[in-house]
Amino acid sequence: MISFSYNLCCRDVSTFVSERTKKSVMEYLYKQYLSESRNIRVEEGLIIIPDISGYTEFVSSICIEAGRYIIGELLSTILQANKLGMNVSEIEGDAILFYKFGKKPSMQRILKLYETMLRSFTIKLREIETIIGHDLGLSLKLIAHYGTFSEYTIGTFKKLYGEPIVKAHSLLKNTIKSKTYILMTNAVVSKETAKKEKEYFFINYSCRTIL
Description:
Blueprint: H1 2-37, E1 41-53, H2 55-60, H3 64-80, E2 87-91, E3 96-101, H4 107-132, E4 139-154, E5 157-161, H5 163-170, E6 181-185, H6 186-189, E7 200-204
Parallel strand pairs: 4-6
Antiparallel strand pairs: 1-3, 1-4, 2-3, 4-5, 6-7
Helix pairs in contact: 3-4
């Protein structure tokens, strides 16, 4: 009988401690959420991803030192051509993820931004190709999307989260044959074109003179 009471008492204490622990954990998580939520921003904004076409083949055809230098120079020209004052979220090897919260810029301003980036990129690429004496087979394409996403802070880093971010990245994996183009979603151009039934708006720059 004493043994039974002792075991019952132990189980009651164990349950009590367990419940207290759960409550403490939940309180801690809630406090963390309140603290971190101050660093989370959710708004509508523009996402653009300039991406270097031909990057995979380029990497496999050149030594690491030369390849790193060339790609670094080309990415730097893209950063310097950022005339819309967009923020940089990530530099992802052959691409840069730009974003800017606020009112959607006109389609013409986005096209002009791409043309500015493409011009700077092409000038630098030709300088490098002249020095090394052969064509590198690289070009520049750009993806543009608009939607609601969040910006949150992890340590000293600002990260983006949301369906528009996923969609913008997924648009890079397409079947377009051209290496030089801009692809915008309907969310970017819907108020400026009668073709609202189209999900995407594509312009091929392969045959255009931008210099």
